[in-house]
Amino acid sequence: MSLLKVYNSYTRQKETFEPITPGHVGIxxxxxxxxxxxxxxxxxxxxxxxxxxxxxxxxxxxxxxxRNITDAGHFEEEGREAEDKIADKATLEKLEPMELxxxxxxxxxxxxxxxxxxxxxxxxxxxxxxxxxxxxxxxxIKEGYAYEVNGSVYFDVKKYAAHYPYxxxxxxNLDDLLETTRSLEGQDEKRNxxxxxxxxSAPPQHIMRWNSPWGEGFxxxxxxxxxxxxxxxxxxxxxxxxxxxxxFPHHESEIAQSTICNKHMPARYWIHNNMIxxxxxxxxxxxxxxxxxxxxxxxxxxxxxKGYSPMTIRFFILQTHYRSTLDFxxxxxxxxxxxxxxxxxAYEALIKxxxxxxxxxxDQQLDEKVIKMLLQLDEFMNDDFNxxxxxxxxxxxxxxxxxxxxxxxxxxxxxxxxxxxxxxxxHEYIENILGLRDENAEDEGKLDGVLSLLIELRKEARAKxxxxxxxxxxxQLQALGISLKDDKDGNITYSIN
Length: 497
Hints:
Blueprint: E1 5-8, E2 13-16, E3 24-29, H1 40-58, E4 62-67, H2 85-92, H3 97-114, H4 130-142, E5 146-149, E6 152-155, H5 157-161, H6 174-180, E7 196-201, E8 217-219, H7 223-233, E9 237-243, H8 247-262, E10 267-273, E11 276-278, E12 281-282, H9 293-298, H10 310-318, E13 326-328, H11 330-352, H12 364-382, H13 387-405, H14 416-433, H15 439-463, H16 467-479, E14 482-486, E15 492-496
Helix pairs in contact: 2-3, 4-7, 7-8, 10-11, 11-13, 12-13, 12-14, 15-16
C-alpha cells in the first residue's frame, strides 16, 4: 500500500504524511461563527475534514480532532470599528447574545448530523477560553511583538516580518499588504496599518466584554484559534485545516502569534479546501447568493428548483477533489442525486449476491480487473484524499455488479475471495470513509414509527368505543395508500399499496 501524501498549503507541494507521535494524529479545524445559520459554503470544509478524519481512523490512527465554535462577538474584518456581530444579530432577533449563540450552535450541530459528519473529539468555544487568550497575549507582549494602545492590544506585523516569513502561507509580502490595506475606521491607533488586533477595548454599546489587564474588552478574531489549538493539541500538532478563504488573514496571523508565543510553527501540514461557487461567482452576502443548509434541504430558495437531501449534497461535494473549485447548479445536484441512487442500489445488490460455488472464477481477466480497481481506491485516498477518483472507480465497478445481479454474467464469474473483497471494499468506502448512508432506510424507519403510533391510537379509540376516531384513522390512511387489517387476535397490521 502506498504512503499517504497530503498537499501542504504552506510549502505548496505534496508531502508524505509523518505524524509527530507515531500512531496518533492531531487535527485542528476552524469551526463556524455562530451569529447566523450555516450555508452551503460551510458544508464543504466540514465534509472535507470529516473525510480526512474518517480516513485516518480507517488507517488505524488514534485521532484527536478539534473543531472550535466562535461565539465571541469580535469583529472579523481587520480595521473595522468594533462591530459586535452576535450582539447586533441578537438585538434584531430579540434574543440575549448567548441565547442566539445557542440557537445557531444547535442548528449547526443538527445540519452536521444530517450531513453525517462525525462529531469532533473536542469542540471548544472562544468564550470558554478567554483566560487562555489573555495569557497568550501577555506572552506575546513580553516577547516584544505586541503593544497596547487605549485598552487595545495589536500584533506588530512589521517587526515580526523582519525576522520571520510573514505571508508565506498566503503568498503575500509586506509591501503588498501595505498597498492593499484599506483605510478603515480604528486604524489610527495602530503603529502600522497591517497590524492586527489581539484584544480590543470594548465601547459602551458592546455587550460581550471581559476584564483584562488592559481594561474591559474582547479578543480579536485570530487569537482564539491559536489559544485553543495549542491547549488541546500542543505547541506543534499535525494538521491545521479550514477553507481557502482563511489563509489570509486568519491563518497567517495564527502562525505569527503561535510562533512568538510557543516558539514553534503551530502545524506541520496546512490543508485548505477550495470554495463553492454559484454560476462561477463566489458565494457571499454581497452577491445575494448564499443558500442556507435548511433551504438546501427544503428547496425554499430562488436559486433552487427543489430541495436536496443531505446525502445528495454530501455526494455532490465528494465528486470533486477538495482543492478544486466546485460550482453549484441544479443540474449538477440532480445528476448527483441520480448518481448516488445508482451507486447505492448497486451496493445493496452487491451485499445480497451469493458466494460463487467454485473457488476459481470463470473470467480471470475480469477478476484481476476488479482486484486492481479496488486496490486503486487506497492509492487514490493516499494521494491527497482524492474522493473524486475513488467514486469514479466505484462507478466503473457498478455495471459488473449489476450484470451479476441481472444474470447477464454468471454468479461464478468472480472468485469467491474477489467477491468478498468487492463487498468489503464497497462497505468500507461507501459507508465508513465516504460517510454515505441509506436515507430511504431512515425514512422507512420513521414511517414505521409513525404508523405504529397511529395503530396504537386506533386501538385505544376502539377500546373506548370511539369508532368515529378509529374509522377516521383507517380511512385517511387508506386514502394515502396504506391499508390496515384487523386480525382475529386483536392485533392490527398494515400494508402499503
